Amino acid sequence: MKKLIQLVKLEYGIDIHRTKKIHDSPKSFVLKLQTDKGPLVLKTLYTTLERQNFILEAEEHLRNKGILIPETILTREGKAFIVWSQYPYVLQKWVSGKHYPLISKKRIARMGALLGMIHSNSISFYPSNDNSSPEGNLEREYDEKLAHLKSWREQFKSNAPEKINAVLNEMEFFIQTGEKVRQLILNNPYKHRRFLCHGDFHTFNIKANGDSLHVIDWEDVRFDFPSKDITRILYVLMRRYKRWDKDKFNILFSAYLTENKLSPEEKKILTLDLAFPYIFDRFLRKKTYKKLSTKRIVQFLKREQEKAQYLLGLFPPQ
Q1: Which residues of 283-307 are buried (b: 16+ CB within 10 A; e: fewer)?
Q2: Residue 96 in contact with residue 68, Cβ under 8 Å?
Q3: Which one of 25, 115, 248, 301 has the minimum C-beta count within 10 Å?
Q4: Please, are residues 206 and 100 in contact by the beta-carbon 8 Å criterion?
Q5: Parallel, antiparallel, or unpaired for β 38-44 and 195-197?
Q6: Distance between CA atoms of 216 and 199, rounded to whole angstroms?
Q7: What is this structure's pTM?
Q8: Which residue, among 184, 162, 157, 207, has the nearest Cα to 270 in the 3D structure?
Q9: pLDDT tens string for the chain (318 positions)?
């Protein structure tokens, strides 16, 4: 750590007064620095230089379009990051402010509009290295997640405890829903446009400072269909209010579409994809059910079912 700090001082020409570790895992490292240039944050994803360049280029593109993203500090030689132990480390300004819980209709609409602006302004982004970003593949994702649901069912099909049985009782609904979405979308010949998705868009990655909303933590940014980001924030919304609420969804979605004007076919694909059991699959992979009571598991399953039924009902079979 001391050698890394010395390298940062040398490369950026700054004085560092104090440091505070914010995050440290096998996937990433984040360190807050108090410096003579104000509070900064040093971070790495333990990723390749090519991937780091893609992230920085995506941030810069959206920043130039008016999205508030922490500014990247250049080294004294004008480089966007330094390399330490073979991994790139980025230095950015620390953004002060509070997180942005969705406690009102106004905030829900503003969050939807912000996400719509991000996606809309990403259409014109072309990275210098087009092979540096993972790109979403709906068919692969559907197949992998449906296979996981089926294998989970087989694993626990006998002598399961009460919590597991609560999940198994509704498993067939989620598998059938996933297969229906897969068929409807993959049989559609429409080729959607390529959007940048944040990859982890939720209220803790939004910092509010006065009337300004900064979007932080772009480490998972990638090309994908916009439903991936909407799914994430919709889950946060449902968890906060502990139920499926079509009115709140429509507030979020209407504000989103105001900023990102999708074609009718794109809107249809997006809505259908929102019905796919991504969150249910994540619930199983992360073993969230172990932390919940049976009652809360049943509540979670119910709202995910109601969400899927509502979204699929918007496009009934012809």
Answers
A1: bbeeeebeeeeeeebeebbebbbeb
A2: no
A3: 25
A4: yes
A5: unpaired
A6: 11
A7: 0.93
A8: 184
A9: 889 999 999 999 999 999 999 999 999 999 999 999 999 999 999 999 999 999 999 999 999 999 999 999 999 999 999 999 999 999 999 999 999 999 999 999 999 999 999 999 999 999 998 766 667 688 899 999 999 999 999 998 777 899 999 999 999 999 999 999 999 998 887 777 889 999 999 999 999 998 899 999 999 999 998 999 999 999 999 999 999 999 999 999 999 999 999 999 999 999 999 999 999 999 999 999 999 999 999 999 999 999 999 999 998 766
> Looking at the chain, how many residues does it have?
318
Tokens linked to 134: 């993972």
Q: Which residue in the block uniquely carries the two structure tokens 């997640």?
A: 145
